[in-house]
Amino acid sequence: QAKAAGRNTLRFFDPAMQLAANERAQLEADLRLALARGELVVHLQPQMDEDTRLCGAEALVRWQHPERGLLGPAHFIPLAEQTGLIVPLGRQVLQAACRQLAHWAGHAAAQGLAISVNVSARQFRHPGFVQDVLQVAAQAGAPLHRLKLELTETLLLGDVEDTVARMRQLREHGVSFSLDDFGTGYSSLGYLKRLPLSEIKIDQGFVRDVLTDPNDAAIVHTILALARSLDLQVVAEGVETEGQLQFLQRHGCGGFQGWLFGRPCAIAPFEAAYLPGLGGPARQHTQQPEIA
Ligand code: C2E
Ligand code: MG
Ligand code: MG
Ligand code: MG
Questions:
Q1: Low pLDDT (below 50) residues in the chain
Q2: Ligand nearest 182 Cα, by number?
Q3: Which end of the chain, N or C, is more open, meaning fewer C-beta atoms within 10 Å of its C-beta?
Q4: Coil, helix or strand for 197?
Q5: Nearest to 101 by CA among 174, 49, 35
Q6: Complex ipTM value
Q7: Which secondary structure element, helix H or strand E, spans residue 116, and what is its range?
C-alpha cells in the first residue's frame, strides 16, 4: 500500500496528517462554494447600555452547511483567515450588517441601534479594506455612524502607523472602533492610547469567574479604571448571570452582552424579540438555534 501511494514521499507521512490535510482542502473548497451560494448567515446578539436597555447588536457569522447544519465561526474562520477567503467572507458580513442598519434607520424604534462587526487582522490589512467598507455601506444606504468595527489585539503586532491611518480614514466617515477580547492579547498601554478607539470589550474569560476568582475581579476592576482614564466605553462580554451583571454595574461598566440578555439568533427572531414595534412577525418565543 505504501508503495502504491508513492514510496519515498509517503513512507514517513503520518496518515492522520494526510487525513487532516484532505479534510482541510475539502473544507476550503466547500467554503468557496458556500460564499458563492450565500450559505453564510449573520446572526445578531443584543448589546445593552448601562441601564440594560438594548443599544445595538453584534453581528456573528454562521455557516448554514447543507449537510452539517449550522456551523459556528470556530469551524471556518481560522481557515478563512489562512486562505484569504476572510476578505470576501468579511465583505458579506459587512453587507448584511449594513443592510440591517439601513433597514433600522427607517424605524423610530430602531434607528439609534448600532451594529458591531468583527474584522480579522488579515481583512483589515487588505489594501482595499477602507474603500470596501465605504462602498458596501453606501450601496446599502447604511448610516456609518451606527457601524462599529471590532478589532483584536493581533492588529497591534503589525504596522501600527498603517493601522491608525486606516482607522482615521474610516472614523472621518463616522465609523467607530472597538477592541475585542481585551486583556487576552498583546496590548501595551502605549499602543492602546495611540489607537483611535471608542470602546473596549472585556473578554468573557475574565467575566466568567468574576464573582469567585479575586484575580479576575482585580483584572476587571483595572480594565474599567483604565477605560475611564482613557475615556473609552466598555462592554463586558459573556454576561450570563444577574450576579455578574451587578458586580459589573457596581464597578462602573456601561455596556453588556451575554446570554443573560440573549443569545445570538437570526435577524427575524431578533427583531421579533427585541423590536416588536417594527411590524415583523408577531412576537413569539423562538427556539434558539443550536450551533456546532
Ligand atoms: P467574539 O467576537 O468575541 O464574539 C463573542 C462570542 O461569545 C460569540 O461566539 C458569542 O456567541 C459568544 N457569547 C456571547 N455571549 C456569551 C455568553 O454569555 N456566554 C458564552 N459562553 N458565550 C457567549 P461565536 O458566535 O461562536 O463567535 C466566536 C468568534 O468568532 C467571535 O468572538 C469572533 O472572534 C469570531 N467571529 C464571529 N463572526 C465573525 C465575523 O463575521 N468575522 C470575523 N472575522 N470573525 C468572526
Ligand atoms: Mg466580537
Ligand atoms: Mg470577544
Ligand atoms: Mg473571541
A1: 1-3, 283-285
A2: 3
A3: N
A4: coil
A5: 174
A6: 0.98
A7: strand 114-118
